[in-house]
Amino acid sequence: CVNASAINLTAAQSGGVWSGTGITNTSTGTFNPSVAGAGTWTVTYTISGSCGDTDTLYISVISCNSSISGTIYNYNYSSQITSGKVELRNYDTSGMQLPIADIFILNGISGNYNFINVPAGDYLIYVRPDTNSYPNATPTYFGDADYWYLATVLNVSSDTAGINIGVHEIAALTGTGFCSGTLRYGIGTGKTGSGNVIPFSDPVPGIDIALEEIPGGIIKAHTETDQNGFFSFSNLTLNSTYMILVDIPGLPMDSTFTITIADKDTLFFNLDFVVDTSSDGTGGIYIGYPLGTYDL
After folding, report:
1. Cβ(207)–Cβ(249) under 8 Å?
2. What is the pTM of this model?
3. How many CB atoms lie within 10 A of CB 279?
4. pLDDT tens digits for 222-251?
5. DSSP string, 43-81
């Protein structure tokens, strides 16, 4: 396996030199599969001199799968989060939405999770606590990050344990403000923050939407889009300014809305976003209209 330990090759006659892909010590014949990588490699043993000789062997290295395990905790790691789901996503920098590789459902008894048969590669790990059991908990990535682009990327080449996550928590709001909007698929004509997009009719359900207070960047509320792509926030605090952030792993957020809850301005509607999943790497998340933008 590519993640196996290095081994020392042996020859019937000593005094020779080893060479070839994966050989890290030519005298002892140390072969390291992680250095060689997956494939079939030629290794040569050569004895110099008038009575010298050369022999060749072939070593096959395969990409064996691994496991990833850890525990989901509350924000200060004092107790476990036992209900919710943990997602494993393939990670790359293509600018496209990152696919889900696996999902682990927490069993309601412990916060332990375990992904098996994981191919070697780079991954993000994300937990979405059950909102009924943990109404104040927010989705959190490995690295205790709120958003995918701040998460710690996990490189997996062998069994990996102790990948723990401390879920963030927020306090309930008690104000009188309200805002709402939708999230739909579309095609952007440039990441200008001008809302210059072609909207489609298909909604984007099940997407995390965060409400950050600015300045400060502290998440004050969190929700996810419903089956119609709709989201809303209520009880927003008077004389506060908020920014709305959409988290879709792999897609950059080019522009967003900011709102200020004031005496005569407490209700905000049609804060609509468009998601462009273009396969050429130019996709992203755009505002649907130019009103109230905050370019990122």
Report:
1. no
2. 0.76
3. 9
4. 999 999 999 999 999 999 999 999 999 999
5. EEEEE-STT-EEEEEEEEE----EEEEEEEE-TTSSSB-
